[in-house]
Amino acid sequence: xxxxxxxxxxxxxxxxxxxxxxxxxxxxxxxxxxxxxxxxxxxxxxxxxxxxxxxxxxxxxxxxxxxxxxxxxxxxxxxxxxxxxxxxxxxxxxxxxxxxxxxxxxxxxxxxxxxxxxxxxxxxxxxxxxxxxxxxxxxxxxxxxxxxxxxxxxxxxxxxxxxxxxxxxxxxxxxxxxxxxxxxxxxxxxxxxxxxxxxxxxxxxxxxxxxxxxxxxxxxxxxxxxxxxxxxxxxxxxxxxxxxxxxxxxxxxxxxxxxxxxxxxxxxxxxxxxxxxxxxxxxxxxxxxxxxxxxxxxxxxxxxxxxxxxxxxxxxxxxxxxxxxxxxxxxxxxxxxxxxxxxxxxxxxxxxxxxxxxxxxxxxxxxxxxxxxxxxxxxxxxxxxxxxxxxxxxxxxxxxxxxxxxxxxxxxxxxxxxxxxxxxxxxxxxxxxxxxxxxxxxxxxxxxxxxxxxx
Length: 455
Ligand SMILES: Cc1cc2nc3c(=O)[nH]c(=O)nc-3n(C[C@H](O)[C@H](O)[C@H](O)COP(=O)(O)O)c2cc1C
Ligand code: SF4
Description:
two-stranded antiparallel ribbon; binds iron/sulfur cluster
């Protein structure tokens, strides 16, 4: 696709300027001066998140070949912990080696569990050293299988529930448009037996995660990875495809099995993609006649079933970073050779905030962690505080903002504002590092470590 750079208006100096921009774009988003509401604790089952701010899972591609956290992984999580957020959602951690998204992705297993235990211990110490003895953030392990984006040895080894004309041609580095066949073939389709065994692998990884000190586990179901794709596998035959009951079987049974084996009190959550923005029948949460519109009927039905199983928190997200990245991660500049967003990024932010709000209002008993705030730069806390005050999210999460500004929460909680010289600027350079197979972090604000990039 031809790359056309757009110069989006970014007027985020103060709330008044922001409201003018919202008015010009016919894109109303609330923002308030007083962010003190973000200091409120949030209860989730037997856990208390000490404030209403979260660090979203942000993969650094800096583990070792055995899946252990490496020196940059330790550095990132100690900085996040010291940064004061009440909830630290640790990045995608593979449950099986063939499901790793890259050879540096974390992978939790019996042989390397001590390294994870050490990292979580060091995180807790860093949080206390920075925020005081009473500060104990909730730390979550995001358990994953990368599905069609599996690259365990650095080359594409897709594992898919069904063929998909939209996503099949887009396996990174295997673009048919460059004269090569897509890596996706019928042989990549996984069997029901594979999925049965994978459920056991999730339960095993969950057991290890609690053992090494995580407070909760996330059965990751978003961004086009395996479980997210299963939710839309309407063309798949057998017990994991076709009907709503079959498509949601995998995730619901994993939750049940974790509770049965480890105890009902164990906090299980999911980062759930609510809207794929990929045409029906391949997309989940999409309007059958117009995939540019969401239809949350099925995601809400799933949420109700999760709530009945005691799931008390959901990390809200949408879309697929390889297919339609501007929808889940509004940016000013795309990665190399990618399309430029056709909509102003603020419209993307509004979509993320409004959909999360719709869910939070309908499920007040579940704490929704909101996503999509990083593009707002120094107004992230002001928009987040308004979202919380208006009942649109109980916890406000930061993804790229945490890479750029790991102590964003501490500044919001102690100074009531963010420093404009430390915020994320939505340049996509961190994503470029990941696409290039390099250790990933903020090229702009953490330049000494992550300074070499190709865009
Ligand atoms: C480099 C990079 C790595 C990411 N890694 C993960 C991940 O491991 N798990 C996940 O659920 N989301 C991941 N995300 C998505 C973010 O958590 C977040 O949803 C997204 O960046 C939008 O939020 P933001 O506007 O606050 O950045 C990643 C995003 C980027 C840019
Ligand atoms: S490189 Fe830094 S400033 Fe650019 S998008 Fe990533 S986190 Fe934000």
